[in-house]
Design brief:
globular; Jelly Rolls; mainly beta; disordered C terminus
Length: 129
């Protein structure tokens, strides 16, 4: 019989490349959800960051559960976020960066479609929009 309920500590964790002070917990993966999306719990201590990067094929959405930070998406000016903030769809190919600010750990739900684990991401050293 398949298992449907997991505790956070039972799930896979990983540190994405070009990220510092940040750990992701894979909540759903392509193998569990018929290849349509991937959902992770991103956690960053104060000063943690996702340096400039883009996802070549995946859309990305954030929902902030806890903590405060700043996001830079494409050519838009940086924007601050906090609990309850929704960072609406970041399209494929758009360079973005995220920084954790303040004392409280940032916890954020991140959704990728298609799953990032199958298509990857790239450093913003490459020229993109």
């Amino acid at each position: 019989m398949p298992k449907y309920v997991f505790l956070e500590h039972e799930l896979e964790t990983y540190i994405p490349s070009d990220h510092s002070g940040l750990v992701n917990v894979r909540l759903f993966s392509k193998s569990q959800v018929a290849n349509h999306f991937e959902m992770v719990l991103g956690q960053a201590d104060s000063g943690g960051s996702a340096e400039s990067h883009f996802h070549e094929h995946s859309y990305q959405v954030y929902y902030i559960l806890q903590g405060h930070g700043r996001v830079k998406i494409g050519e838009e000016p940086p924007a601050d976020f906090g609990p309850g903030s929704v960072i609406v769809v970041i399209p494929p190919g758009i360079i973005h960066s995220v920084w954790a600010l303040g004392e409280e750990r940032v916890r954020v739900i991140v959704i990728y479609s298609p799953p990032l684990e199958s298509v990857g991401s790239k450093s913003a050293g490459a020229t993109k929009r």
